[in-house]
């Protein structure tokens, strides 16, 4: 029997509104880096939870090298990187309209 500990990163304002300029329709949220004990070449997007109104979207990109290279992906997708890396970062593109904004709740990678 093996055990595995999951770590949840919780930070941010917790606000359910998007603080952006009135003239913009999108914003980018970037996680802080999670340093792993071993270098990884594969990362799976195991959860992407948020509120996505009609005509909006949340696009996710993941990096295994601290943000030097990025791979786009969707929920359930396994991303394969050419080089191993141990500094895991994700960024979410919140694409809205002038009247609607998607809200990101959390992202989980495994």
Structure description:
By secondary structure, the chain is an all-beta fold. The protein has no helices and six strands. It has strands at residues 26-30, 34-51, 57-63, 71-73, 78-95, 103-109. Strands 1, 2, 3, 4, 5 and 6 form a six-stranded antiparallel sheet that branches. A hairpin with a 7-residue loop joins strand 3 and strand 4. It is elongated and about 45 Å long.
Give the helix/strand layout.
Blueprint: E1 26-30, E2 34-51, E3 57-63, E4 71-73, E5 78-95, E6 103-109
Antiparallel strand pairs: 1-5, 2-5, 2-6, 3-4, 3-5
Short description:
The protein is mainly beta. It has strands at residues 26-30, 34-51, 57-63, 71-73, 78-95, 103-109.
Q: Specify the helix fraction band.
A: under 10%
**Major pleated sheet:** 6 strands, antiparallel
Give the number of DSSP strands: 6
The coarse overall form would be elongated
SSE order: EEEEEE
**Overall pLDDT metric:** 83
Radius of gyration: 15 Å
Number of helices: 0
- Strand content bin: over 45%
End-to-end C-alpha gap: 19 Å
Q: Helix/strand/pairing class, anyone?
A: mainly beta
Low-pLDDT parts are 1-18
């Amino acid at each position: 029997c093996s055990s595995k500990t999951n770590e949840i990163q919780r930070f941010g304002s917790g606000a359910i509104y998007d603080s952006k300029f009135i003239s913009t329709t999108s914003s980018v949220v970037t996680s802080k880096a999670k340093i792993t004990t071993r270098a990884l070449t594969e990362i799976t997007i195991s959860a992407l939870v948020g509120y996505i109104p009609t005509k909006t979207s949340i696009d996710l990109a993941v990096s295994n090298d601290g943000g030097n290279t990025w791979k786009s992906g969707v929920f359930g997708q396994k991303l394969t990187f050419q080089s191993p890396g141990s500094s895991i970062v994700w960024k979410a593109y919140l694409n809205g309209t002038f009247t609607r904004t998607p809200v990101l709740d959390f992202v989980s990678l495994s």
